[in-house]
Each structure stands twice: as C-alpha cells, then as structure tokens.
Design a protein that fits this description.
By secondary structure, the chain is mainly alpha-helical. The protein has one domain. The chain contains ten helices and no strands. Helix 2 runs antiparallel to helix 9, helix 2 runs parallel beside helix 10 and helix 3 packs antiparallel against helix 7.
C-alpha cells in the first residue's frame, strides 16, 4: 500500500518539500512490540490450555508477563537504540578530529569517493571544494560515504515507550476473553490474536509496495506458529501427567 502518487515537481514544491523536517516513525517498535506482546500472552494461554490447567493461570501468568516482558523489551529497545546513536556520535567525533588534524588527507578521501562515482577533472575538484568549504556538510558526507551512516531521528526513550505501549496494548487482547470469563475463551483469544496479527501486518503495508493482505497473512502465520508450538509443549507436558 505504498503511496506511489507523483510529487509536484515544480521548483517551489520541491523547495518546500526538501525544507521540511523528515517525519519520524516508530513503526518498527509498534510492529515488533505488538507482535511479541500478542505472541507472549496467547502462547501462555495456549500452553495453559494444552496442559489442562486452570484458566485463572492464564490471567496470572499473562499479567505478569505483560509487565515483565514488556519492560524487558522496552529496556532492550532503549539500550539498542541508544547504542546506535552513541556509535554515530563516536564516529562523528572521530571525523571531526580527523578533519581538524588531517584536513588534506580528508580532502583526498572526498576526492577519491567522488572519483569512484565517475567524476573527474574540474568537475571533481569543484565537488571537493564545495563539500569541504562547509564543515558540517563535509562531516555529514564522510559519515554517509565512509560509514554508510546518517543521524538517526529516533529518540531512545521514545522508542522504548512505543515498544512498551505496543506490547501492553496488543498483548492484553488475548487475555480479554479470560478476563470476561467468556465461553470458549481460548477460541475467542485465538480469534482476537489472529485479528491483531493481521492488523499489524496490514499496517506494515503502508510502508511497503506489497499488498496489505500479504503482510497480514504473513504476520498471522508467524504468530499462530509460535502459539501452536506453545500449545504443543503444553499438551506434551499434560501427557506426562504434569497437568491438573
């Protein structure tokens, strides 16, 4: 469902579009957190039902895992995002130091980078002079061309919050039928879980050229497969006489 609508390519429209700040999306955190939240709680329900244990255990284990695993995921997301940002800052400081201490060597790096792109002669020297005349442009170019990195717009704290929120909201849904003491609670939990998996997958299609239903079915299959394994383990434990 990727938006392939043509942009307005007038000079004014291009200037306005390029002048805007890049939008910041926390889609990865919502997809990752949401899927893991549903898998976690529905897998607990599947394991409990497979082991023929009391439905109350689903709520107890489900609630405990929602908070514990949700916080753990958020902490992991915070640490990984901050590590990426810290690594970018470290490499940027290295480039700043190199430009200050070895300006001619860094100019030569720019020259060779753009020579490999096919520029030569006066055109190449114009590019080198233009880039190296602006310190920030020089540093940004080195970060992008030498390390393949650009400044991440993601906040580690916000990424962690979105992950935790997605985990809690999506992970709560499979517990609702047990909380309401619905007849055939496990079946309804499965329906809610499958619907949530499909919705999360379909949401991904807004940033993809693949059809929404394809993403939805793919995500649903992955989630149900994880739950199926949990049910199988629970059923196996029950066959060993470990159920009640």
């Amino acid at each position: 469902m990727l938006n392939l609508k043509d942009h307005d390519h007038s000079s004014e429209a291009i200037r306005k579009r390029l002048g805007q700040d890049r939008p910041v999306y926390y889609l990865r955190e919502w997809v990752y957190g949401g899927i893991d939240g549903v898998v976690t709680t529905f897998a607990i329900a599947a394991g409990v039902v497979g082991a023929n244990l009391s439905p109350a255990i689903v709520l107890i284990l489900g609630a405990a895992n929602l908070i514990g695993d949700g916080f753990s995921m958020a902490a992991g997301c915070y640490s990984s995002t901050k590590t990426e940002n810290d690594n970018y800052d470290r490499l940027r400081e290295t480039e700043v130091s190199h430009i200050e201490r070895y300006p001619e060597g860094e100019r030569e790096e720019i020259r060779q980078i753009y020579a490999k792109k096919g520029f030569s002669g006066q055109n190449l020297e114009t590019i080198v002079n233009t880039i190296t005349s602006d310190r920030n442009l020089w540093i940004d170019t080195m970060m992008a061309e030498e390390y393949g990195l650009s400044a991440s717009p993601l906040s580690a704290l916000k990424a962690a919050f979105h992950t935790f929120l997605a985990f809690i909201l999506c992970g709560t849904l499979p517990l609702v039928p047990f909380l309401l003491k619905t007849q055939q609670a496990f079946i309804w939990a499965g329906i809610l879980s499958a619907a949530t998996f499909f919705a999360i997958g379909a949401l991904k299609s807004f940033w993809s050229s693949k059809p929404w239903w394809g993403h939805g079915l793919e995500t649903t299959f992955v989630g149900i497969a994880a739950a199926g394994m949990a049910f199988g383990i629970g059923y196996w434990l029950r066959s060993l006489g470990l159920g009640t």
